[in-house]
Specification:
Layout (H helix, E strand, L loop, with lengths): L4 H10 L6 E6 L9 E3 L5 E3 L1 E3 L14 E4 L7 H13 L3 E4 L14 H5 L10 E2 L6 E2 L1 E4 L15 E4 L1 H11 L2
Parallel strand pairs: 1-4, 1-5, 5-6
Antiparallel strand pairs: 2-3, 7-8, 9-10
Bound molecules: zinc ion.
Length: 172
């Protein structure tokens, strides 16, 4: 959370020639807009929806690069074969996602695909409690549902040391 992964993805997108890439996000994500992509820092660009249950790419032949954010919302069993098919067609695939959920369980397809990727970049946020490098995310509400969506009102970032304290506080 707040590690700048979406900003990283959008900055990468700026380096690609127009008309050669498409950005996708899971259809479960309707926080801000269905047809437009908005990162936490307010950067906007069009995004195509990709069904988490049945992801299908309908790409015109000029598309060389597929960008996907919130990879954590896809089941690895569902998304992995679909991405493999696109790799066989010669497409470059750039994805961003959370590795772990608030309970430190692997979150969707991110962890398993990070191990298969040619290149893997891990980004870190700052801990809400002590300001050190954060590797964890904790939930500020008491809901235990893994797919709860939200921005700063729902999630926070913490280091390993503060995670237990912040998680305990959030359960009160
Ligand atoms: Zn800390």
């Amino acid at each position: 959370m707040f590690s700048g992964k979406t900003t990283w993805l959008l900055n990468y997108e700026k380096t690609l020639p127009k008309g050669t890439y498409e950005l996708f996000k899971p259809t479960i994500d309707t926080r801000y807009s269905v047809h437009e992509y908005v990162s936490h820092d307010g950067h906007r660009l069009p995004a195509h929806n990709l069904s988490v249950k049945d992801p299908i790419f309908k790409l015109n032949p000029n598309i060389q690069t597929i960008l996907i954010d919130e990879l954590n919302f896809f089941d690895p069993k569902v998304i992995t074969p679909v991405l493999k098919e696109q790799l066989k067609l010669g497409k470059t695939i750039i994805v961003a996602g959370l590795l772990y959920d608030f309970a430190k369980n692997p979150f969707g397809a991110t962890l398993s695909l990070s191990q298969k990727a040619d290149k893997f970049i891990q980004l870190f946020a700052r801990c809400d409690r002590c300001g050190k490098r954060a590797s964890e995310s904790y939930r500020k509400t008491t809901s235990q549902e893994q797919f709860l969506l939200g921005a700063q009102d729902v999630y926070g970032a913490s280091c390993k040391r503060c995670w237990a304290i912040l998680s305990r506080t959030s359960e009160k």
